[in-house]
Each structure stands twice: as C-alpha cells, then as structure tokens.
Design a protein that fits this description.
8 helices, 4 strands, single chain, alpha/beta
Length: about 170
C-alpha cells in the first residue's frame, strides 16, 4: 500500500470510529475478561485500541508492530515481576492486531499461538464483531497464560486491567 493510501486511511479513521467499534459496554466487558483471567494466572494483560496513527508516524512508515512495541514500553507492560506482561494492540485503520509478550512469556508461548489469537480478532473484526471476537481472543490468551503461569496464590495486579483507547 502506498504511503498516500495509508495516510488517507489513517486520516479517515477517527476516534468516533474507535468508539463505535469499542463502545463503553465492550470496554467494560474487556476489563472484566482481563480481571477474571488474571485471577487464574500470574501474568499481566493490557489491551490498547488505537483508531489511527498520527500524521508523523504514518509518514515515517511506522508499522503497527513498531507502534505496539513503543506502547509496550510506554505503558510499562515489560515491568512485571516475572517478565510476564502481554500487550494486545489493535490498530483500526491498518486492520492489524499485534501481541507483544515480555521475554518470560515469549519463552513459553509460541508465535503460532499468538497468531491464532490475532486471527480470532481480525476475522471477527472483518465481520464487524469487535465485542465477541475480542472477548474470544482474551479467553484464548487467558487459557494460554493459565497453562504456563497458573495462579499460585502470589498473584497481585501489577498493571491496570482497564483497556486503553487512544
């Protein structure tokens, strides 16, 4: 895709498009799913939705993966006791989902498992099912994390469970 075409998509995708895809009831359901999952495992999950990148990021050619990594650092997802933070980043304009896992999680969960989770979301998004597909993906993430980081009674919430709308 040309820079011009991508720029047009990002300029056209407004914050109101983000609110339509992720209304407050969906955001509350996402927060509840993260909270419930974290009761069963020791990992930390953050979800960030960004309707579109800014003009400078698009012109610089920033990829959704690069943006996800920057947000992973900015929101401190890397800063957990067991290196078990997971960021789910949704870029609506690019129709992309990126998952960035901290090094501890990256050692035990395969890239193909993360790709399956991303497909759950992107296939649902293609049907305009943001609510159901995001919750289904979070259930998959929580199951993977429960398998590899089961709750041992030492769990304490280190990151907010509240999804972020940029």
């Amino acid at each position: 895709m040309s820079t011009f075409a991508r720029l047009f998509k990002h300029l056209r995708t407004t914050s109101s498009a983000g609110r339509r895809a992720f209304p407050s009831e969906t955001l509350k359901a996402i927060e509840a799913a993260i909270t419930e999952g974290e009761r069963k495992h020791r990992a930390e999950v953050r979800l960030i939705v960004e309707p579109a990148l800014g003009l400078q990021e698009v012109l610089a050619g920033m990829s959704p993966r690069e943006r996800a990594r920057a947000l992973f650092a900015q929101y401190g997802v890397w800063d957990t006791e067991e290196n078990c933070g997971v960021l789910v980043y949704i870029n609506l304009a690019d129709h992309q989902v990126e998952i960035v896992a901290d090094r501890g999680v990256g050692k035990v969960i395969s890239a193909s498992d993360w790709q399956t989770v991303c497909r759950t979301m992107t296939e649902g998004f293609a049907r305009n099912d943001y609510h159901g597909s995001t919750l289904a993906a979070l259930a998959q993430i929580n199951a993977l994390l429960q398998q590899h980081y089961p709750d041992d009674g030492s769990t304490r919430n280190q990151l907010s469970d509240n999804p972020v709308m940029l």
